[in-house]
Design a protein that fits this description.
The structure is a homodimer of 435-residue chains.
Chain A (H helix, E strand, L loop, with lengths): L6 E8 L3 H12 L1 H8 L1 E9 L15 E2 L14 E4 L8 H10 L3 E4 L2 H17 L4 E2 L10 H8 L5 E7 L2 H13 L3 H11 L7 H4 L2 H15 L9 E2 L7 H9 L2 E11 L5 E11 L11 E8 L3 E8 L3 H16 L19 E2 L5 E2 L1 E7 L5 H11 L4 E7 L7 E7 L2 E2 H13 L8 E4 L4
Parallel strand pairs in A: 1-2, 1-4, 2-3, 4-5, 5-6, 8-10, 10-13
Antiparallel strand pairs in A: 7-9, 7-11, 9-10, 11-12, 14-18, 15-17, 15-19, 16-17
Helix pairs in contact in A: 1-11, 3-4, 4-9, 6-7, 12-13
Chain lengths: 435, 435
């Protein structure tokens, strides 16, 4: 509680892109506020970035420039390294490792780094008593790491369900609003800067997967396990899917979910899902992120906010710096690395619930008579079925909503259905999230 | 980070109602989890409640019973007192004060106590280096205190807007769903245990006010100021108001809002408001709570969850205990008590925006011609106007949506309108929340 005597926390900032520059700006703009709330002045003393000459709209004249990021890890005027470079390997990995080895705290926004090297880094952090914090790595503007690690810490968490990629959510929201195709909206999003030139990591679901793995580690006290993750992206969705989902009272969202099954296995899955409009996740629009968690005493908790961008991500980084200034120092994933469990994992096969199944078939009588027995043979019963697009010689879309079944039944049935001559495309199947 | 050697945090629990019994249950049920996450065993060593013999479904055999709650404050086997008695004065006040004076930490769910005595207790906490924590006092299941104090701490907060009373939200949601009157739904809620026998503090807005004052203190670094609070409850709302609001694309919610105005004054206001369906607050239904905050870097953040009840409130209390076990120790309202500002306050007069105005008038030609000049004279322009209920000799409801104006203009205009002979009831005016 010794907040009267003003101390200084010296930051070495690696990377001056969106995240790094934003961090610099907020530390300057809200310096007085930050000191009032911590009793500590948090100042950037040294920086590194790829391009020294670039104008970033920030005044670096009072800050030392180092030419190699790794130098920040041993810099005498640096107490904490902010790693805002990104990338799961070097130079980010070496920088973080070396900083921790030198007893310097680290704050990072790097989800890929932690998803792949989280356990090792957690061990290193404990060994050298150097905290490693990563609020900015998941859903920037939403303090979800703190919420799971501390706010809801008294609860056994049974599941987390999140919209954690703003690019995908922007694309899906726009497809719904305009009726345009995935590829048209993606192109537009790229022009607007909402999607990367290579959008694979976003629209393929990998980015959501990185974040999901970190949330699961915190929630379940298990090792971040990027290997056992079922990932599907949004690239196969059509505007028609979104329209039909709407007729069923649902919206389609890219959901990352990590759920503890009754047998103790942990399911980690990124997949577009139908989300009924009664769920708060259904109302997360545009570039926003939203995360729903379920705890045994607290019940459902939902948070929504901006998931990326300069301001929100920098806000998260600086909240970690303020925690450090306040003396917070705990294990990276909430419990010591050696106690993180290596939980047996489940797969999409184990997901249980209702499914949306979309088939594109030839327009001729008898197709449904071919499909229905296959579903029956895999214990899949039909809750409703609609057929669309009957114009001469055009393919027809059939959408089936199933009763509760398993991902495995769906997969096996779809393998057989795909082999039918009248079925023109691989079936698309989307879990229906009832939460 | 010394989480390997198991220590014990000994809890003295005052009050065994919903909150106290829930705390006891979660500490037992999730004991292993809690120890794994803190390295500390958190155990209840002593309890007090009004009725020793009552069956609460918990086994108190291993716990010492003290006959006077104040004894917990000096009990040698108590490190932290959990105050779950409620009430802004004694015995809760004396218990908390004495515990702090004795250097014992305190965790409380008591919003009234802190709203009225927050500054004094904050000083006492600092003087004796004894943390006082209150996550459970506001929106039980939502870790909003931690979110404002830590998660969003890097931001200048410009406003907080919350649905913080589950009873009111249940009543409004039910009125909307069934079309029943306020009094009918209240009676039903009382039978179901969702409303107290004396519902004044809930439906009158006072309970929301207590919570709002605490959030404002944290967000703005000002002293909790229960005196300068504009409070209106939900008892004047009709099912027709809710219906008409729906036609304007809005729902009616009891909103507590605390906003920093451009001149630096702080507005604290509890009032039913129209909330457009585009706002996440519009989708907070039933007994849930939801809070929207706006920060300069992070933008809008929204959280939703269960606001009361045994599980959520106990979850919040135990999260505070776990923070204490982890060594968290900061000023009660985020900054030292002496630095809490005594900000000049604004009132409902200063609220700027659009309003919903409902008038009940005699059904005769010319009434609107009497009202329109009054609005004009107070710089209030009409965005839309509808008239309802024209059946012979029955009063007519007129609803006006205004363009942007101030609470003061609305108040002055309504004073004149209420004096018109053809106006049968005091006008009802509801701010329209555009966030």
């Amino acid at each position: 509680m010794a907040k009267n005597q003003e101390k200084t926390l010296r930051v070495g900032l690696a990377g001056l892109g969106t995240v790094g520059a934003g961090t610099f700006k907020i530390l300057q703009a809200n310096a007085d506020l930050i000191t009032r709330r911590t009793g500590v002045r948090i100042v950037v003393t040294a920086v590194n970035a790829r391009n020294k000459g670039k104008d970033r709209g920030i005044d670096l004249s009072s800050v030392e420039w180092v030419d190699n990021p790794i130098d920040l890890a041993s810099h005498p005027d640096v107490d904490v390294v902010v790693e805002a470079m990104g990338g799961e390997n070097d130079p980010a990995l070496s920088l973080v490792k070396t900083a921790l080895q030198n007893g310097k705290s680290v704050v990072t926004a790097n989800k890929a780094l932690l998803a792949h090297h989280g356990v090792d880094l957690s061990r290193l952090s404990e060994k050298h008593n150097a905290p490693l914090m990563f609020e900015a790595a998941v859903a920037g503007g939403i303090p979800i790491i703190k919420m799971i690690r501390e706010g809801l810490a008294a609860n056994n968490i049974s599941g987390l369900y999140g919209i954690m990629n703003g690019t995908c959510n922007y694309i899906l929201t726009t497809m719904e609003r305009t009726g345009e195709s995935f590829s048209d909206v993606l192109e537009e999003a790229q022009k607007l800067g909402y999607a990367e030139a290579d959008p694979t990591l976003d629209v393929g679901g990998g980015d959501s997967g990185h974040k999901l793995v970190l949330l699961g580690a915190l929630a379940f006290g298990c090792q971040p396990d990027y290997q056992n993750l079922s990932v599907e992206g949004i690239d196969r969705l059509s505007a028609e899917d979104i329209l039909i989902a709407g007729e069923f009272g649902s919206r389609i969202k890219l959901i990352g979910q990590t759920v503890k099954l009754e047998d103790g296995r942990i399911l980690q899955m990124v997949s577009p899902c139908l989300v009924p409009r009664t769920s708060p996740l259904a109302h997360v629009d545009g570039v926003l992120n939203g995360i729903l968690s379920q705890g045994d005493f607290v019940g459902l908790s939902f948070v929504e906010g901006r998931g990326a961008g300069e301001g929100p991500t920098a806000s998260a980084i600086v909240s970690d710096l303020m925690d450090l200034a306040n003396g917070v120092n705990g294990p990276v994933f909430g419990i010591p690395a050696d106690q993180l469990q290596s939980s047996p994992s489940a797969s999409r096969d184990d997901w249980t619930g209702e499914f949306y199944m979309r088939l594109v078939v030839q327009d001729r009588p008898g197709v449904i008579a071919e499909i229905a027995p296959i579903l029956r043979d895999h214990q899949i019963s039909i809750e409703s079925l609609i057929q669309r697009g009957r114009s001469a010689d055009q393919p027809v879309t059939i959408v089936i909503i199933t009763h509760q079944t398993t991902g495995k039944n769906i997969r096996l049935a779809c393998q057989e259905i795909a082999d039918l001559p009248s079925v023109l495309d691989d079936p698309l199947t989307l879990p229906i999230l009832k939460i």
